[in-house]
Fold:
Amino acid sequence: MFCVKVNTAMVNRNAHQLGTDMSSLCFSYDGLCLASRGCDDTLKLWDMRKMKSPLHVAGNLENVFPMTDCLFSPDDKLIVTGTSVRRGEGVGQLLFFDRDTFSVVTEMDVAENASVVRCVWHPKLNQIMVGTADGNAKVYYDPDLSHRGAKLCVVKTKLKRAQIQFLADDPIITPHALPMFKEERLKSTKKIKEKARADPIKSHRPDMPFHGAGAGGRLGSSGGTLASYISKKYALQRPIESSLDPREAIIRHAKEAEENPMWTTAYHKTQPKAVFQQIEEDKEGEEEPLPPWKKKKL
Structure:
């Protein structure tokens, strides 16, 4: 952080009416003059070499905003400022004063029932940007003297939309054609919907159930596995009697399956005999041994 001491070279404590704000100060491009805009409804031009009294004073320029601008034109020949208006009492204007005579050269109406608050004159673009109290911003330019800036938006041509060309797919009706070339003419939308409903492609009808053997990559409704084939071929052809116990129905074929096996014929000679553990009868009076987790620890 740097601290710079500034000494006051010139002071004028009565530049504008006491008790009012000074809304803007602007130096000329040559550095010889100073323009001041005050809330006492005046615009004053000062000579930097003699600050005791102003060179020119313009009054009756209403100013109710403490930030109303004043500025010099890029060629230092004009001084510009805006005026304020009360609500519904007039038009906000932009005034151009001659620097030498301080006479009004041009009065430009900017906004109705709105005050002109901020204004900037760009030296390179040679365009004036104005901001009003109603929240709008406007740009003023000369087609011959201004450069770029707003002119880029104004001279830009609007893109033409490409026209879409299409051929209508309407049916050609020939009433006197041969029957084989005639097209059916539907008179009502109900018939059109009924015809579309009958068409499986237009109605997006799902595939119907498939019966029989599989074809075209699809399986039949009974399934295509070996288990489904066996159950359909053998189990369904020999239904179990409802009056017979299922266990007895299975055991009655045990002797026949042992003598004439259908599925284990290849292992009939080498099939081992089942050996089961023989359970001895418990001796009377002997107690069953306790499991290890119930035995008492010594």
Summary: The chain has a mean pLDDT of 79. The longest strand covers residues 104-112.
